[in-house]
Amino acid sequence: MTGTQRLTPEQVEDFGRDLDALRQRIVDNLGEEDVTYLRNLIKTQRALEVTGRGLLFAGFLPPAWLAGVATLSLAKILDNMEIGHNVMHGQYDWTHIPELGSQRFEWDNVAPAENWRHSHNYIHHTFTNVLGKDRDIGYGILRMDPAQKWHPYYLGNPLYATLLAILFEWGVMLHDLEVERVVQGERSWAENVPVLKKIVRKAAQQIGKDYVLFPLLTGPLAPLTLLGNASANLVRNLWAFAIIFCGHFPADVESFTEEEAENETRGQWYLRQILGSANISGSPLFHVLSGNLSHQIEHHLFPDLPARRYPQIAGEVREICERYGLPYHTGPLRKQLWSVAKKIVRLALPGQGPAPDATVDPDRQLRAA
């Protein structure tokens, strides 16, 4: 394991048991306080959305238009990050409250919830940072790891990243089509038909709402309303991109081969989540606006625990890591974002990776012999 002491098989399993015990303690403590938190947050989000859209009706006044965009942006961020992402992870399925169930929730985003639950909850969280399995590494368009074979196409890495940030919800939507697998002959276009139908239906709903219905409701102010809605979507996209990339791709975050992740024990899976994630430090408000994905380490360890619990356990997770000599990557947003930006530019160029015939460093193996 690069940059860490090598753990014996016994230590890895002890590490896993410590984290299991921590998780169970939180599960045993879940209750009405968690439900109240989420319901209050949903009320706040809805109030912000109504307020934001209402302010856009007075969009002929620049201060009202700007306030409407800002308020609607906050509503969309809360809907996607602290509410939608977390509810769709099943973090509140234990309540058996239908509207808080992961299978029923649909978010304010062009990516259909059903598609996202498969590509994110299953593929990404099962195979976190496993090259060839985790399609979130580069989202099929970026070179985000030196082990990805370089091609002249990747000279556009900075441009592709910029476009992905601006159009992030659309990138997440198209991600489910797995176009790169179709190009490589690993998947047929016919297999994409069911996915595509859901995408078209959901995208039509979002376009109809933000760019047709609400603009028309404001009459002669329709162009300003349309611009306001587009601006709010842009703010949400840039914010989501920054938070997600800073949790997955700073310089010290590791990736893994399929062989390293094969037949993992629980302790080995936990270890991979620690080494393949990074946190972002900040204020309580910052954590809420990030959907608590600023605690990406804790989220990757316990994706089905209510995210509001991550700040409560972060100190203990860090202490467990220190006890076993493991890194706990964290830093402010500016530091993590700069690290990601440098990686995007660096990996646009040839090289930056092991030789084609390089063997896996035994100290990187997650399974000790």
UniProtKB/TrEMBL annotation:
<dbReference type="GO" id="GO:0006629">
    <property type="term" value="P:lipid metabolic process"/>
</dbReference>
<dbReference type="GO" id="GO:0016020">
    <property type="term" value="C:membrane"/>
</dbReference>
<dbReference type="GO" id="GO:0016717">
    <property type="term" value="F:oxidoreductase activity, acting on paired donors, with oxidation of a pair of donors resulting in the reduction of molecular oxygen to two molecules of water"/>
</dbReference>
<dbReference type="InterPro" id="IPR005804">
    <property type="entry name" value="FA_desaturase_dom"/>
</dbReference>
<dbReference type="InterPro" id="IPR012171">
    <property type="entry name" value="Fatty_acid_desaturase"/>
</dbReference>
<protein>
    <submittedName>
        <fullName>Fatty acid desaturase</fullName>
    </submittedName>
</protein>
<dbReference type="Pfam" id="PF00487">
    <property type="entry name" value="FA_desaturase"/>
</dbReference>
<feature type="domain" description="Fatty acid desaturase">
    <location>
        <begin position="63"/>
        <end position="330"/>
    </location>
</feature>
